[in-house]
Each structure stands twice: as structure tokens, then as C-alpha cells.
Amino acid sequence: MKDVARLAGVSTSTVSHVINNNRFVSDGVRKKVNDAIAELNYAPSALARSLKMNRTNTIGMLVTTSNNPFYAEVVRGVERSCYERGYSLILCNTEGDHKRMNSSLETLLQKRVDGLLLMCTEIKGPSAEVFSRYPRLPMVMMDWSPFAFGGDVIQDNSFLGGEIATNHLIENGFTRIACIAGPLDKSPAKSRLDGFYRAMAQAGLDVPPEYVLESDFEFSGGFSAMNQLLSLPLPPQAVFAGNDAMAVGAYQAIWQKGLRIPQDIAVVGYDDIDLAAFLTPPLTTIHQPKDELGKLAVDKLLRRMDDADAPSDLLVLTPALINRGSVICR
After folding, report:
1. pTM score, two decimals?
2. Which of these, 3, 55, 210, 279, is most buried using a 10 Å CB contact count?
3. pLDDT at 150
4. Could you give the CA distance from residue 203 to residue 42 in angstroms, rounded to a whole number?
5. Do 222 and 272 belong to one domain?
6. Quick one: 204 and 279 in the same domain?
7. Residues 222, 267: one domain?
8. Do 135 and 217 belong to one domain?
9. Total number of domains in the chain
10. What is the structure's pLDDT at 205?
């Protein structure tokens, strides 16, 4: 910057004003500075600027690697919101590995990210020792948190979503309804199953133990669970899958058995991933506002960065049924 100022015959503060466009500089002086910048091939140092401003304009995000498109769609919303607000996003995958989770978290913190978004589904949370060295780092947890960290949490009302999905099947005349649940050590999966049980109980319908299977929120898990249900002496008439990825797996199992959706068996999913509308038939599912989730998370994190001592918030998003073609509506 001093070299640019020397070549242009101006002060370093004038060079700064031209680069940042934050104060009036005459056209003649601005041209001298820009010509000097071009001649010297100068580019502002983000590192130097971050040291001076004590802010890097970067946000870190820790996310679980998964074949489930839900995570990719949420990350897309987060990245878009970061871009619109002038921030860069550094994304780290945990690969489902606790050691890698701590390593990735340490990497983000060493890069001095201004805030941290967490969307990891591991049972064991990051090392408390890592967080102890960055006690005032603003954080927002998205969807589910396996640990207490003192930040904000944004999640959907999974209990209500499970209830809505099951009631849709009940209202259309189905009585033998099964549920392919996600991992029950994770609160969204358990809450969706609890919503299923609540709707069935209120309708006075029995749930045989073999009609409820715990799976993994992945395509293959839905495929395996659906095959188990179809092998029962009295298979269900309808299935509520705890997420769309498992519903896609269930579709494949049903197709391989030579059965038809919705004529032979009805299916309801959860998440409303982009793929859901392009299945055959299109999947009836519970919509999670993924773009809104990403936007809210970034906005909440930026507010916490400005006020680190604000009380922690829990924001709950309301799910809604998207009625498509995988359930015969009577």
C-alpha cells in the first residue's frame, strides 16, 4: 500500500479511501491511484485487513457428511445468505468421525472465523477443551445439537411434523400404518416418531411393534427397512418415513417387489428435498423450510457476533404438508 502511495504521489490513507470507496477522492487522484495499483499488480491483503479490523468476514460451518440431500440443500441456503451479506463460508465435514470433528473445529477456530454454524449429528460433541480456548465465539446450532454450548438453536417442530404426516394417512382411510424412524438417539428422529405415536393413539389405532423400525436417515436404510416391512405376514397399507432419503429407499424396495405407489402402498416422507417432486409418483412429504433455515441461522449468527452476551434463543420452524401423488386421497 505504501508502494502504491509512493508511485501515485499520495498518502496511504488516500489509497485506502480509493480501495474501500469510503470517502470522496477526486477523479484525477483516483486515476493516479488506480494506475499505480495496476502497474504494481497490487491486491489488498485480507489477512492484514482482518488483523486491523479484528474481523475476517468469514463464517465456519461444521456439518456431517451424508448422502442425505437435506444437508446439501441447507448448506446451499447458508452459502447464499453468507454471500448476500458479504461473508465467505468455510465448510468442514466431520465424516461421522469424532476425532475429525475436533480437528475440523480446531482448523476453523485457528482461521479466526467470526462465527460458527454447527449441523453435526454425532452423538458425542466436540471437545470442551477446544471450546475453552475460544470462550466468546458466537455459535448457532442448526437442526440438532448433541451437546450444550451456550449458543442459539434453530430447528423444526419435528413432533408436529410427524403428527401431521400420520394424520394425513389416517384421514385418507389407512389403518395399518408403519413408521421407518431415523436414529432414535437424535432428537428430531425421536420427536417425529413420537408425533406418529400421538396421531395413531388419538385415532384409536394400534401400532404393532414390528411396524416401527429404527433406521439411519440414509437411502440404504429406508430400502432395508421397507423390505422388512414388506416381508411381514400382514404388511402395512401405508408408511411414514422419518425423512425423504429413507422414503426414496422405500420406493426402490416397493418397486423391486412389483408393487405400486400409491395403489398398493402409500408413502409419506419428511424434509421436502428437491428430489421429492421428481419421483414417480411425486412424494407427499413434510416441508422443512431449508432456505429459511439457512437464512435464519446466518442472520442469528451475525446478531450474536454484534452482541455476544445476548441470551441464547431457541427458534422453532413450523413444518407443513406438501400433498403430492404418493398417497391416494379419498
Report:
1. 0.81
2. 279
3. 62
4. 71
5. yes
6. yes
7. yes
8. no
9. 3
10. 97
In the chain the first and final C-alpha atoms are separated, in Å, by 72
Domain-embedded: residue 328: no
User: In this predicted structure, what is the pLDDT of residue 96?
Assistant: 72
Question: Do the beta carbons of residue 181 and residue 216 sit within 8 Å?
Answer: no
- Residue 214 maps to a domain: yes
- 3-class SS at 251? helix
Q: Is 274 helix (H, G, I), strand (E, B) or coil?
A: helix
For residues 327 and 266, is the Cβ–Cβ distance under 8 A? yes
Quick check: is 260 in a domain?
yes
CB atoms inside a 10 Å sphere around CB 249? 24
Regions of the chain where pLDDT drops below 70: 45-55, 65, 121-127, 131, 135, 144-150
Could you give the residue ranges of the DSSP H alpha helices within the chain? 2-8, 12-20, 27-40, 46-53, 69-84, 98-110, 128-132, 158-171, 187-202, 219-230, 244-256, 290-306
pLDDT at 309: 77
Q: Looking at residue 122, what is its pLDDT? A: 60
pLDDT of res. 137: 82
Q: How far is CA 231 from CA 3, 182, 206, 263, 324, in A?
A: 77, 20, 19, 18, 27
| 283 dihedral zone (left: phi>0; alpha: psi -120 to 50; beta) | beta
Q: Are both 153 and 164 inside the same structural domain?
A: no
Return mean pLDDT, the chain: 88
Specify if 89 maps to a domain: yes
Rounded CA-CA distance 165/162 in Å is 5
Find the domain containing 179 and state its range: 158-287
Q: What is the pLDDT of residue 118?
A: 87
AA identity, residue 186: K
